[in-house]
Amino acid sequence: MNAAEIHIPRKLTNQLLHLAQLSPDFEVCGLVSSHNGVPSRCYPVANCAEHPEQRFLLDAKQQIAAMADMRERGEQLFAIYHSHPSAPAQPSSHDVELAAYPEALYLIISLNTKGILEMRGFKIKQQAAVEIPLVMND
Questions:
Q1: pTM for this one?
Q2: Residue 1 counted as domain residue
């Protein structure tokens, strides 16, 4: 996934933004799979962080189940997403520190500005985050 930009289907983008809006006070999180390199499916995973209003921690059992489902469907892990209810759509130091999948895209959805949703993508490797432009397509 070394593209200059990442194309994400509009339907999937809308689903991710909707999930974030359903929980405006707590970070939502989950996985996005791809099929043949194209982002295809969203797997919401419970946030089991001690302070879900400020952090996210994927529930281990649900994450394992989602990854097993991906394998059964012939899909691969494409992205890990989470929302920031009151912060910009950029990785926090905590997000960078705990990033464990360097091959995955990290999608961050911000609800920071009333009435405006923002989603940005980052590759996080070796404690450094690099933004990857996102393009919605149909």
A1: 0.93
A2: no
Looking at residue 98, its amino acid is L
CATH number at residue 88: 3.40.140.10
pLDDT greater at residue 74 or residue 116: 74
| Contact (CB, 8 A) for 121 and 131 | yes
3-class secondary structure per residue, 36-92: CCEEEEEEEECECCCCCCCCCCECHHHHHHHHHHHHHHCCEEEEEEEEECCCCCCCC
- For residue 129, the enclosing domain spans 6-137
Strands in 105-113's sheet, in edge-to-edge order, are 38-45, 29-35, 76-84, 105-113, 116-125, 128-132
